[in-house]
Design a protein that fits this description.
Length: about 280
């Protein structure tokens, strides 16, 4: 699927999915404001067996720094990131909210907010191959997310304030064949730019996947553009993005017991300034 002219599509998305000012001009939580005490209490009540799953992977493949530690380790992208030429969430330039830090909307502000109801949408198993994997370059559309939730049953319904985890199966494939360089920089399955509408309507609190960069690579535009989904989701929607989450063991358990909802505790380190930070997310069922 090839989308229209880049700037035209970005302009339409900025207008349609803008949350700036929704929670006040000094807001630092973005869509995590959807997670209230009642949602957290409900999430705690989802624990039945007490089985805990770490969704983190350590550094893999080439390493580097971009304000969030090793490039290939499980992390949150906070609200200070302004990809491409986008303005950062509070109007600062991308330079002001780069790897040098962002004291206003740095990821440390999210440390107490990333706890709530987690929902796994195992798109890899629902629409992928026999191994439960999507091919590289596969764009996950809204229909794939809806069809996956329907196939998985009632515990997969996405509600306001949920932290949505999308499994593509790419991490499992990379582990099997050892293609870590391709995991970081090559083609990848991922969320289509067009899923921004679904994320906005469902009022998800955050979204994370098992890929390096959340969105499909190559992107869906005919002309080059840097991280188009990031450019809307982070600075305009205020949606935290989780990258490189290890969903394999959790997905196996969800498939076995048919329950795809759980308590999720995924606090980043409470450090001042970085636009991203490593995280060890824990799902408890």
């Amino acid at each position: 699927m090839i989308l229209g002219p880049v700037e035209e599509e970005l302009a339409k998305a900025r207008a349609a999915y803008r949350n700036r000012g929704r929670w006040g001009e000094d807001d630092v939580l973005g869509t995590l404001n959807f997670v209230d005490d009642a949602i957290r209490a409900h999430a705690a009540g989802l624990v039945r067996r007490g089985r805990a799953f770490s969704l983190a992977q350590g550094p893999q493949g080439p390493e580097g720094t971009d304000g969030s530690g090793p490039r290939a380790a499980t992390r949150w992208r906070g609200l200070g990131l302004g990809p491409g030429n986008e303005r950062a969430r509070h109007g600062g330039s991308r330079t002001a909210a780069s790897g040098d830090g962002d004291a206003v909307t740095g990821v440390g502000h999210l440390a107490g907010a990333c706890t709530g109801r987690g929902v796994l949408l195992d798109v890899g198993r629902a629409v992928g191959d026999a191994r439960g994997e999507l091919p590289d370059g596969f764009p996950i559309l809204e229909e794939h997310l809806r069809d996956t939730a329907e196939a998985q049953g009632a515990t997969s319904s996405v509600r306001r304030g949920d932290i949505v985890l999308v499994r593509t199966g790419q991490l499992g494939r990379v582990r099997r064949i050892g293609a870590w360089d391709r995991y970081v920089s090559g083609a990848a399955p991922g969320l289509s730019f067009t899923t921004l509408g679904w994320l906005h309507r469902t009022e998800a609190a955050a979204v994370a996947t098992d890929t390096f960069g959340i969105e499909v690579r190559p992107c869906e535009f005919a002309e080059p553009v840097v991280s188009p989904l990031h450019r809307i989701a982070v600075p305009h929607m205020g949606l935290p993005l989780g990258e490189m989450w290890d969903l394999e063991t959790l997905a196996e358990d969800c498939s076995a017991d048919g329950v795809y909802e759980f308590l999720l505790v995924a606090a980043p380190l409470p450090v001042t300034g970085p636009v991203g930070a490593p995280v060890n997310p824990i799902a408890v069922k």
